[in-house]
Amino acid sequence: MVEEELAYPRWRYCRERGRHEGPDHAERPARPVSTLAWNQPRLLDVPRDFTRFDKERHADPTSPALIQARGIAELFTELRGWSVEVRRLTDEGLVVVLSDHREGDTVRYSEIRPLAADRKVNVERVREVLDEMGILINDRPDRFEQWLTSRTARFAPELRDDVRA
Fold it and tell me: Is 0.70 surpassed by the pTM of this model?
């Protein structure tokens, strides 16, 4: 019977040691662990809801993106003369948006816009900082295009194309 146990299955799981043992599973040296960092790219581009951010649970002051953004905001404060209140509201918005930021992520303007009503965040200043960092996607519709489309909607197609050109 002992020979049958070893023959089928050819290996057995040893619960005490947490490893497989048997004729094919001899002691092997541990594989070397790679020291390279790897980030999982997003599978779906789903808009994030920053209004659900809880500062006590989600804030990460050690985020490299947040540290960089705070430096840029400090520079803008000096150059543009932001008040203490504007600086505080901008910093609050940066904490919300960049605490969970990963390398290569981008932020859409439409994702940060609801923060103005929800948290009284100075969204335009946050937009300036994110744009300076190069991670902002400005997905706002062009107002001139909207105006032109509404004004030329009743024109004949030939005239409308000439006016729009």
Answer: no
